[in-house]
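Obj: model holo form, ligand = zinc ion.
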Amino acid sequence: MAIRNIVKRGDPILTKVCKPVESFDQKLAELLDDLKDTLHKAEGLGLAAPQVGILKRVCIVEYEGEQFELVNPVLLKQKGKCVDNEGCLSVEGFRGWVERPKEIEVGYYDRHGKYHTIRAEGYFARVFLHEMDHLDGILFCDKMLRKVTASDYEK
Ligand code: ZN
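Output (holo structure tokens):
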């Protein structure tokens, strides 16, 4: 296990469409373990393989103490819309307001090649969608309505 460097915005790696995982091997397990270590050090909610320079459809989400390893994730269903504030370990200096589906269902494989589905809503859904966007070369700032500013929180 190892902590990898997080690629920052401006690096063309973050704009590429990632390739599906075809073999559920030791290399995949190592990538998932490294993503976890790197995420813990950075204290984020999720991390995608392209953020450590690997163009594979792999990401992890950690939300309220639960951990999800997503290999080849696909958005199966979506419902509603909501706007909330998000940031990214690859985007320094600002957060943005982003509109996303409110409720989703995602299908994905785990490190052993077993298929799962999960339903999520609200901010939990948002973390999945943010990480899955990375696999298509999309950053939150590509689709944000505007940057979050201090005055958003003043009354
Ligand atoms: Zn991100």
